[in-house]
Amino acid sequence: MSDAPIRVVVADDHPIVRSGISSLLSLADDIEVVGEAASGAEAVALAVELEPDLVLMDLRMPVASGPEVDGAAATAQIVSTLPATRVLILTTYESDDHILGAIEAGASGYLLKAAPEGEIIAGVRSVVGGQTVLAPAIAAKLVDRMRQGAAPAGPRLSPRELEVLRLVAAGHSNPSIAKQLFISEATVKTHLIHVFEKLGVSDRTRAVTLALELGLL
């Protein structure tokens, strides 16, 4: 395992908030803030320049000139341009539309600024480690939103595939899932491959969000 620190760009249009987030992350020995952005467009430019491991992104960030690039639009640009860079939303906004827009854009997680400091730092580590991170309140909103409407007919997942996907949604890694279900990591990966194929997705985050949309979770 590499000993290199997790390289993070912090994107927030409020200087005091941005500084506070950067100071918080600097408390962790394994996290390094390599850049700060005050707008969505600046976040995209910095990400392309620095190729960080993660961009910690606010959602509502107007720009001084040119077309507005909010956090969701910036997230979509970063994810499409830099597949190795993950985006974790950290914002005060928790409306259904904000949440769905950010996740549809490719964000790997969604946390609120009111979250405990330890949860934010843990979220950074988890997302860079390939996990999906959703604040409990956000996960509950997604479930409620998807279950209120008539869920469209979706693919059938086996009971074991659903077990694996539920643990993925809870933020567990493949080794953790294997341990809890008493199966090998290779078997976990096989189940996930089948889940991805049935749902027509290519990553864990989209598998969870689509499963919620379809009422499978």
Largest sheet: 6 strands, parallel
Helix % is 40-55%
Radius of gyration: 17 Å
User: pLDDT under 50 segments (min length 5)?
Assistant: none
CATH topology of the largest domain: Rossmann fold
Distance between the termini: 33 Å
Task: Write out the strand line-up for the largest beta sheet, numbering strands in chain order.
Answer: 2-1-3-4-5-6
Number of helices: 10
CATH arch. level architecture of the largest domain: 3-Layer(aba) Sandwich
Q: What is the average of the pLDDT values?
A: 85
Compute the number of structural domains: 2
β-strand number? 6
For this structure, what is the CATH homologous superfamily of the largest domain? Response regulator
Q: Could you state the order of secondary-structure elements as H and E? A: EHEHEHEHEHEHHHHH
Strand content bin: 5-15%
Which structural class do the helices and strands define? alpha/beta
CATH class of the largest domain: Alpha Beta
